[in-house]
Design goal:
Strand 6 and strand 7 form a beta hairpin. By secondary structure, the protein is α+β, with helices and mostly antiparallel strands. Helix 5 packs antiparallel against helix 6. The strands form two sheets. Strands 1, 2, 3, 4, 5, 8, 9, 10 and 11 form a nine-stranded mixed beta sheet that branches. A two-stranded antiparallel sheet has the order 6-7.
Length: 241
């Protein structure tokens, strides 16, 4: 598997995960995952804390979310990185293209996230139970019927950005689970934009920045990517306001 390695040292490896790549083996995805690629690339130098199915994995991205993902190459690095994620000190930022133009143009979204009582296969902002979640957002560019936004999750709940933006009324374009009225909304987009969304068939969401304390040196390190090909194509096809 050709991995796009952004950074690698004796303690960790940072990967630019492409769209469509599952992070770790699960029912229906026994191989062809990022873990399989990491094992082939790193050999035996991955943390064993996650067990045989998740060696080195300290966080994950959804299958159809692209961007930066860090894996630990030894147990000390794994413990350090896992603790930073748990204490919410890891800086994470995403680019997304959402339906509509958020109002206000920037702010914070809160709301506990838990299993959707109407569909246990999805998540939702729930009135009772769930886990607290906080997302900061900032509108970067507004288009006719859509916007490019910067999303920064302070917490790391399952599907957090997708659920929060949908609950806020501005779901991520292309999201098959939380897109909300996608067929109707798609008709309002330019033909080129409709074709791009249908071709990719997934949420326009890209993890472009991650920053954390290096587990060995203690220095704060950050990695940044340009936006994804999918998002670039999509915003170039939209009509600017």
């Amino acid at each position: 598997m050709p991995l796009v390695v952004v950074h690698e040292d004796e303690d960790l490896i940072v990967i630019d995960k492409p769209l469509g790549l599952v992070v770790h083996p699960a029912p229906g995805h026994a191989d062809g995952t990022l873990v399989n690629g990491l094992l082939a690339h790193c050999g035996g130098s991955l943390s064993g804390i996650g067990g045989i199915s998740r060696p080195g994995i300290v966080h994950r991205l959804d299958k159809d979310t692209s961007g930066l993902l860090v894996a630990a190459k030894n147990d000390a690095a794994h413990r350090s990185l896992a603790a930073q994620f748990a204490e919410q000190s890891v800086e994470k930022a995403y680019l997304a293209v959402v339906w509509g133009v958020p109002s206000p143009s920037s702010g914070e979204i809160t709301g506990n996230i838990g299993r959707n009582p109407r569909n246990r296969k999805t998540m939702a902002v729930v009135a009772g139970g769930g886990k607290p979640a906080l997302t900061s957002y900032r509108t970067l560019t507004a288009f006719a019927g859509a916007s490019l936004v910067d999303l920064r999750p302070a917490t790391g709940r399952t599907h957090q950005l997708r659920v929060h933006m949908a609950g806020f009324g501005y779901p991520i374009i292309g999201d098959p689970l939380y897109g909300g009225g996608a067929t109707r909304r798609l008709k309002a987009l330019p033909a080129a934009a409709r074709a791009i969304v249908k071709t990719y068939g997934c949420q326009a969401l890209h993890a472009y920045l991650i920053g954390f304390r290096h587990p060995r040196s203690g220095a704060i390190i950050k990695f940044r990517l340009k936006t994804s090909i999918y998002i670039n194509k999509l915003i170039s096809s939209l009509d600017a306001i």
